[in-house]
Amino acid sequence: MHILILIVLVLALFIGPGIWVKSVMQRHRSPADRYPRTGGQTARDLLDSLGLRNVLTEITEHGDHYDPRAKAVRLSADNFNGRSLTAITVAAHEVGHAIQDARAFAPLRWRTRLVQWVAPVEKVGAGMLMLAPFAGTFTRSPSLGLLGLLVGVLTLGLGVGVHFLTLPTELDASFGRALPLLKQRRLLREDDLPRARELLTAAAFTYVAVALQSLLNIARWWAILRR
Q1: CA 14 to each of CA 10, 208, 211: distance values in angstroms, whole numbers, following the listed order
Q2: Minimal CA–CA distance to 83: which of 52, 111, 125, 43?
Q3: What is the pLDDT along the chain (227 residues), one digit of tens a residue?
Q4: Alpha-carbon distance values, 55 to 50, 72, 80, 82, 94 (Å)
Q5: For residues 74 and 80, what is the distance between their CA atoms, to the nearest angstrom?
Q6: Could you tell me which residues come within 8 angstroms of residue 112 by beta carbon, excluding any fewer than 6 positions away?
Q7: Closest CA to 71 of 94, 49, 92
């Protein structure tokens, strides 16, 4: 019974934040026409008013984010075309990253460099994890398979570390940049501000939720490694 409770608590710790983030985002998508401007229009208006006309606004299928290399605020179709509280708030959060980039915010630059370096390493690690069992079988060398698993787990761990390092940057984009903009420009209804804070918290913790799920995956591979 104690083991079952422990398993439930561990799963809640690693999976719960991701479920909470998705729940918050989805809950505030209704009503869908709460504001006159879409998320895409809001992002464009904010960028132009801040003198960031060189920053693009685009629709993406790879999650809401700001790309400092392409100088582009990218929003999912729901947030780019939507007029919900979620759409407006997420757009402001990503504009917050564009402001960080324009003002040479050091943590954003460090994160960008780390992500560029870690992304290919993560792919190698994932490949090694998939190939490790076959390598041990075909070479008849269990130690080779174990080595592949160990290297794969370590490389994936690097990616998790980078995700956790993003938290100060995300919190600054939410509460140091986006929330003041939303208040100063009166883009939100007064009664929506507490909900916006919840959304900005969820936006900031998106990468942490991803990192926790990755840790769970690493723990699964580590269990295989220990067998």
Answers
A1: 6, 10, 9
A2: 43
A3: 656 565 555 555 557 767 888 999 999 999 999 999 999 999 999 999 999 999 999 999 999 999 999 999 999 999 999 999 999 999 999 999 999 999 999 989 888 887 776 666 556 655 555 555 555 555 555 565 555 566 666 666 666 777 777 888 999 999 999 999 999 999 999 999 999 999 999 999 887 776 666 666 666 655 655 55
A4: 11, 5, 15, 20, 11
A5: 8
A6: 68, 69
A7: 94
Residue recorded with tokens 């883009």: 187
Q: List the strands of the sheet with 72-75, edge to edge.
A: 56-59, 72-75, 65-67
The count of other CB atoms within 10 Å of the CB of residue 81 is: 15
Report the largest interatomic distance among the alpha carbons of the chain, rounded to a whole angstrom.
Answer: 67
Dig out the tokens for 124 from the structure: 């190698």
**Contact at 8 Å (CB) between 44 and 221?**
no
